[in-house]
Amino acid sequence: xxxxxxxxxxxxxxxxxxxxxxxxxxxxxxxxxxxxxxxxxxxxxxxxxxxxxxxxxxxxxxxxxxxxxxxxxxxxxxxxxxxxxxxxxxxxxxxxxxxxxxxxxxxxxxxxxxxxxxxxxxxxxxxxxxxxxxxxxxxxxxxxxxxxxxxxxxxxxxxxxxxxxxxxxxxxxxxxxxxxxxxxxxxxxxxxxxxxxxxxxxxxxxxxxxxxxxxxxxxxxxxxxxxxxxxxxxxxxxxxxxxxxxxxxxxxxxxxxxxxxxxxxxxxxxxxxxxxxxxxxxxxxxxxxxxxxxxxxxxxxxxxxxxxxxxxxxxxxxxxxxxxxxxxxxxxxxxxxxxxxxxxxxxxxxxxxxxxxxxxxxxxxxxxxxxxxxxxxxxxxxxxxxxxxxxxxxxxxxxxxxxxxxxxxxxxxxxxxxxxxxxxxxxxxxxxxxxxxxxxxxxxxxxxxxxxxxxxxxxxxxxxxxxxxxxxxxxxxxxxxxxxxxxxxxxxxxxxxxxxxxxxxxxxxxxxxxxxxxxxxxxxxxxxxxxxxxxxxxxxxxxxxxxxxxx
Length: 551
What we know:
Blueprint: H1 2-38, E1 50-51, E2 57-58, E3 65-66, E4 69-70, H2 88-91, E5 95-108, H3 121-124, E6 132-138, H4 145-149, H5 155-169, E7 177-178, E8 196-197, H6 198-203, H7 207-214, H8 226-230, H9 249-256, H10 258-262, H11 270-280, H12 282-295, E9 300-308, E10 311-318, E11 325-334, E12 345-353, E13 356-364, H13 373-387, E14 409-415, H14 424-432, H15 436-441, H16 444-451, E15 459-460, E16 494-499, E17 503-510, E18 521-532, H17 534-550
Parallel strand pairs: 5-6, 13-14
Antiparallel strand pairs: 1-2, 3-4, 5-18, 6-10, 7-8, 9-10, 11-12, 12-13, 14-16, 15-16, 17-18
């Protein structure tokens, strides 16, 4: 009995030791996480998230990025990633200039979790799809003590990313024109060719029909879109009542008649066979339609998402553009409590688009309506510019941009919190009369930029819309008299500014989504990027070689 009792006590002691050790490790781990968060200490490896090559979200972007340079198995662009050199004359021999459309959106969501069916198409301006979307959210979580000092809550960010992804999946592709340059063999047998629309060309594709008849899955390229799938004439329960019936035989035969203009010959029109199959097994074909829609690769991919307490920045690009994004790095700067906590601050992303370095910043600056509060915001901006650092551990840091000013194109967005230096009554009077210019003359950010106190040399579009703050929730009314908060003067808190040559502002507007006490703001740009031309480079090298040989 004594032996059994001794063994039992030893077992209890072992379990007690294990439990104590586990608790100590958890306490140490928890303390380490909290301290790193409080003082905004970055880990050695980037801890942002991005879509993987198979479009599944990943929490370990190091699988896709290493040493600040993207890796893509399908990347056929073997050209070196170059930065601007001193010799502009030599660069002109092998560099071409292209333009990319960039949509930058900012929104303070006030810690509110959005419904799954929230419509943000207007904010993203999906009627005119951009090549790159830079979206910044502030107060993505409520700024309470638990979120500020505790472990980061990334659940709301996932909800927002799903809403953004759904919006991009609804984007219709740009429809170009396709011109047939092949001469018909015999003018007497074929009608003269003419310019035809992209939609008509897609209607004649029969790869999907052949695949279904053979029992194989149709193969869709990464650039295939909803238009490609509609070319298979699937039924669509969500079609608008005003949309013409695409399944009528007469319209289908008219579209199919295009084969005569390009010299195609069909033993039997496959679209008629498809129509017969649809009539026989309509229900089964609907489910097949949904399956094919799911097989289509998304038009946009998420290359980076990063959250710091309530500040959240996510960047999405067209799938075809992803392989031309390189040198990606993320930097976070907290300027909140004690000057370091992340309840206020910035999340910044550095990347090269082709051969041009870009920087995107999402910030949430200090709030307050006192006369001297604008100086705190100025200090926040200066501190963010000073402490933002990219590629801290890269061996190529000498040639990669390290700070904000090292980039050739910079877009800064967020809740900058600058107010209007007017009384509550005068501000509302000018808003009612739409005197935007008089309001702008008293806008703190505009005043500070004109004086050169902050953001000197930066640009902003004309503010031709009402102030975006502060609204009653789900209302068009500004906050008025409130026993707790008092009078809140409306202000243009939500801004998008930029710096750098080769950036043209196309539009600057706000959207009327009433989820929070702020209105979202969108700025659309056309930005020049430098693209390495292998053909020009080869020609320049050939000329140089010939000059050397002649000597």
